[in-house]
Amino acid sequence: TGGAITNSGSGSVEMWACWNGSTATPSFSGSPGTITLTQPITLLGGDLRLYGSSGITDASGAIISAVNLLAVTNTQPNRSVDLTANSHMVDVIAGRATENFKFNNAKALTIGSLAGFNGIAVNAIDGSSDANVNVQVTGIGNLIVANTINATGSTTAGVGSVPLSTASGDIIANPGVGITASAGKSFGIVRAG
Questions:
Q1: Which one of 34, 52, 127, 192 counts the least CB within 10 Å of its CB?
Q2: Burial bucket for residue 51 (CB in 10 Å: 0-12, 13-18, 19+)
Q3: Is residue 111 within 8 Å of 82, Cβ to Cβ?
């Protein structure tokens, strides 16, 4: 982003890196492309939907303030969402990647469903890739897991991990919701403040 984005209405904002050009059925074109947020994004209503073919990152000061955030990479090897340069101000998050999905939030956060994506899924594709879902609430508030979190490392050499933490709050998983780390080697860390 070259400048700050503010949406005071209720409509959603979508950003694509390597979009196929179709408004009827948008999807990735297959080319590499990364979304790098360099300025703040503020949405008073609606969703912020980020579709980065190769990945999604943020620079210091590029704080996302939105009710809902969807962050999705292409389903090719080694694609990551890494939104940890800031502690964001989001209520609900969902998304997909194939290596890492890392997110820091400064207030209570719910892992939910947005635009057809349920929870957070990282499924490593490369022959020896790890899969990591790391979500932290860095301020006061709970982390509510209302939808599945899944980190699946590839083959027996991959590691699946799901470290979740809050600085000052609880981690609450709704009944029937799974938090899964799987592969040859797996671990999960849950730490509530």
A1: 127
A2: buried
A3: no
pTM for this prediction: 0.91
Give the Cα separation of 55 and 53 in Å (integer): 6
Report the phi/psi class of residue 156: left, alpha or beta, with left for phi > 0 and alpha for psi in -120 to 50.
alpha
* Percent of the chain with pLDDT strictly greater than 90: 58
Longest dimension (CA), the chain: 48
